[in-house]
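To the wet lab folks,

You asked to see what we're planning to order before we commit. Fair enough. Below is the target structure as tokens, and below that is the sequence we designed to fit it. If anything looks off to you, flag it before the synthesis order goes out.
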């Protein structure tokens, strides 16, 4: 998650921990009513979340509508991409770090 909200930036908080929660659960319109970009991002993020809850796949609503604009890449040991929620939703490379490799090894530990 990399969306900057003016109120948080003005206080030097930037993209702080748990800022994505109102975006996922559609509370952003109440907290940031003047930010139309935030409302649009919230709608998309909620679509991914609802799709995942319904079908186990964030890209599949199980219906003919409700599919997101950007395909969320599958997570695997070989996957080197992730989805970034910011001013735009996009696929991006996973940062090359030992922390990411460590977590991936834990997930797919044999």
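Sequence we intend to order:
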């Amino acid at each position: 998650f990399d969306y900057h909200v003016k109120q948080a930036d003005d206080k030097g908080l930037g993209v702080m921990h748990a800022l994505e929660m109102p975006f996922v659960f559609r509370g952003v319109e109440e907290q940031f009513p003047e930010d139309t970009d935030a409302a649009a991002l919230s709608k998309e993020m909620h679509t991914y979340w609802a799709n995942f809850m319904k079908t186990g796949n964030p890209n599949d609503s199980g219906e003919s509508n409700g599919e997101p604009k950007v395909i969320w890449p599958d997570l695997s040991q070989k996957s080197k991409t992730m989805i970034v929620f910011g001013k735009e939703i996009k696929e991006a490379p996973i940062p090359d770090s030992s922390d990411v490799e460590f977590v991936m090894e834990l997930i797919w530990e044999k």
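Structural context that might help your review: Strands lie at 81-85, 89-93. The radius of gyration is 16 Å.

Thanks,
Computational group
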